[in-house]
Amino acid sequence: MSGGAFEYLQRRYEWQEAIERIEHITEENHSELRLDVIEEFKKGLRIIKEAQIYLERIDYLLSDDDGEDSFLKRLKSDLEQLT
Q: What is the maximum alpha-carbon separation in the chain?
């Protein structure tokens, strides 16, 4: 397995569980939050997903699995694929 500079923090289950819970709240608004609050949740969700991508790419670079050029290329590609 590649990476490891951060002890695979970006792959821990808690990240995905938190993302799924926020997605559930924003899609269904089960908590009946105001729309402006839901919009902030959506912004936060995007930031969390971006942070996860950055952590993964930096991890690969610091673990010598990627060089600087491939770091930049893969980072750009991963961010473009973010939904």
A: 46
Whole-angstrom distance, CA of residue 66 vs CA of residue 60: 6
Phi-psi region of 34 (alpha: psi -120 to 50; beta: other; left: phi over 0): beta
* Alpha-helix residue ranges (DSSP H) falling in the chain: 13-28, 35-62, 68-81
Q: Tell whether the torsion through CA atoms of 65, 69, 75 and 78 is positive or negative.
A: negative
DSSP conformation class of 65? S
For the chain, 83 residues long, give each residue's pLDDT as a single digit of tens: 565 656 666 566 677 888 888 888 888 766 688 989 999 999 999 999 999 899 999 999 999 989 999 999 999 999 999 96
Residues 34 and 40: their CA atoms lie apart, in Å, by 10
